[in-house]
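[audit] Reproducing an earlier prediction to check determinism. Same input, same settings, fresh worker. If the tokens differ from the archived copy the diff job will pick it up downstream; this log only records the rerun itself.
[audit] input (206 residues):
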Amino acid sequence: MSREYCPKCGYPLVVCLCAAISPMGCDVDIWVLQHPDEASHAKNTARLLPLVLPQTRILCGESKTDFVDVQAELTARAGPLYLVYPQDETSEPDIAPCSAGAGQSGGRPLLLLIDATWRKALKMYHLNPWLHGLPRLSFQPQIGSDYRIRKAGRSDSLSTLEAVAHGLQCLHPGLDVAPLLAAQTAMVTKRLAAMPAQVRARYRES
């Protein structure tokens, strides 16, 4: 018997998230370069973004040739653009510090993110040298990730959704990102509840 899906949120009915989804207004565009493996991953958080931020675009691919059209669009686009990606310890200070304002002239700001496991995100970054020259927005989270249903490659790792929430607050200090975090919390809670007890026990309880 095939699994039934909610026509609104797109999740299986057993983990329908509609009750936890509250679209929020924001003048920042979100583009996500998504590794193909993430597109069908049940625990992926990027798929939550368009439900809360309708201006989100999910762009699937891995190498430079997969994103030729994306590069052309970004080149032609007006407005400040920031790649949300952690700085190396040896890198210069952030090009786009967390005090950066979104009110620059020329168009809406855009946050560009890579959606993948840490190892695959690093590979995608190296496969796409056009990303290296973009202004970068990086930050040190004040609190740890609440995304406890997938293993992280770094102690300071955030889910893609959490990275968006932090990025938005960097551009708009004081912005209420609760709708984003509530959607992720609901997804995590329902995924855990749907797991067999022996599987659920493997994950860290909050």
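[audit] rerun output stored. Observation attached for the diff report: Residues 24-84+105-138+159-176 form a domain with the Rossmann fold fold (CATH 3.40.50).
[audit] end
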